[in-house]
Design a protein that fits this description.
6 strands; binds heme C; Cytochrome Bc1 Complex, Chain D, domain 2; single chain
Length: 339
């Protein structure tokens, strides 16, 4: 998952994005529990907008289903290539139904009920006749937003600030996994608050005017400062290891069987990688023969993308824990807390 505001600065801003998310999640003591919601029938019915249950993909409780047909039937708004270590780590493609494009072009805003899907694919690259060209392969995650001008679901933690927010893991089109948009989404979208929380300047399909909102170099610098502050307050308080663990808690619960974006870490020591019951791991993690110990967790946190290449945590938390003392502290904490 990338947060690149500006391709000229993409390395630093990717780190910032991760930091912003962690800061926000840790400050709010997020538990990362999965939603018990199941997909509704509304996506199949194609029913027109109704009070309470509006749009085709939203049911009366505010559950947002993942559409099947956006690749073939919707408008492609634009793409992001997220750079990392001189290569491209992810390709993000953004889609909306065609009629939303017409409305946006006329009104310079999204219509009530408009849905946006961002499909995040792992990138591969190779020498091509055009140069070092990269393309998107397996889907890692889908992000969804649904415009809500009426505050329809005040009690649903996935709705607020004018939108419904949802997340699906690449392997599972049926299970919505975000729990609270304020913890799981909003922190990273703050830089786009002025443009209704969306990064519309990268979507030329919406018309030429959107480009005026593209960030300048100095915006990237002030984002960096804000992110550092968030990071500092996130690590304050509690024993050192517990402080570091707050970053993990955005995605990992310590309650047995309680999975969030990441699997529960209860009983993780001595467990084979990718074997907790009821969590949809990436094949990379399931097929690895790693057994979790102080050494292997250390290696994973040091090189989240490289230790088990292709695992999902590598895309979601790409920087891991670079500081060796912090790794020692969090592993010591986890050893106690995961029992
Ligand atoms: C790590 C930071 C981060 C987190 C966490 C995050 N986003 Fe985003 N999101 C971004 C950035 C940055 C973009 C645009 C650039 C990109 O995709 O690299 C974006 C783009 C999107 C888009 C495409 C439309 C747009 O706003 O430009 C959707 C839809 C979206 N996010 C939904 C969500 C939802 C829903 C959540 C929570 C479940 C979420 N995002 C969490 C950073 C984040
Ligand atoms: C942004 C989300 C996110 C954060 C933050 C995160 N992880 Fe993960 N983690 C994941 C995901 C997703 C997986 C599953 C990977 C897969 O299936 O490929 C995972 C898997 C793991 C595993 C393997 C578990 C198993 O059952 O095999 C360990 C160990 C782990 N994470 C430790 C940590 C620690 C420790 C931290 C904090 C320093 C952390 N993670 C932070 C998302 C995250």
């Amino acid at each position: 998952m990338g947060c690149d505001m500006d391709m000229r600065n993409n390395k630093s801003t990717a780190a910032i994005a991760a930091v912003l998310m962690i800061g926000a999640a840790a400050l709010q003591g997020c538990s990362g529990q999965p939603s018990a919601d199941q997909p509704s029938e509304s996506r199949a019915t194609g029913a027109p907008a109704k009070a309470g249950a509006y749009g085709v993909y939203v049911d009366s409780e505010g559950h947002i289903a993942l559409p099947d047909d956006f690749l073939t039937d919707w408008a492609h708004l634009g793409s992001w290539a997220v750079a990392k270590d001189g290569g491209v780590e992810g390709i993000h493609n953004v889609y909306t139904p065609k009629e939303e494009v017409d409305y946006f072009r006329q009104n310079q805003e999204f219509r009530d009920g408009a849905m946006l899907v961002k499909e995040v694919r792992a990138a591969r690259g190779a020498a091509h006749t055009t140069g070092d060209a990269h393309w998107g392969e397996d889907v890692q995650v889908w992000f969804l937003m649904v415009k809500d001008r009426e505050g329809r679901f005040p009690d649903n933690p996935l709705w607020g600030d004018g939108w419904g927010w949802a997340l699906y893991n690449g392997g599972d089109r049926a299970t919505q996994v975000a729990t609270d948009y304020k913890k799981d989404c909003l922190g990273c979208h703050i830089p786009a608050e002025k443009t209704d929380w969306t990064y519309t300047y990268a979507y030329p399909t919406l018309g030429p005017q959107v480009a005026q909102y593209a960030p300048k170099e100095e915006d990237a610098a002030s984002m960096a400062a804000a992110a550092m502050t968030a990071m500092a307050s996130a690590s304050e308080g509690g024993a050192a290891g517990e402080g570091v663990y707050k970053r993990c808690a955005a995605c990992h619960s310590l309650m047995p069987g309680q999975h969030g974006l990441g699997p529960s870490l209860a009983g993780v020591f001595g467990r084979k990688a990718g074997s907790a019951e009821g969590y949809a791991y990436s094949p990379a993690m399931t097929n690895s023969d790693v057994v979790w110990s102080e050494e292997t967790i250390d290696a994973h946190l040091k090189d989240v993308k490289g230790f088990i290449p292709g695992n999902k945590m590598g895309a979601l938390f790409p920087n891991g824990v670079p500081d060796a003392d912090e790794r020692d502290a969090v592993i010591a904490y986890l050893k106690e807390a995961s029992q």
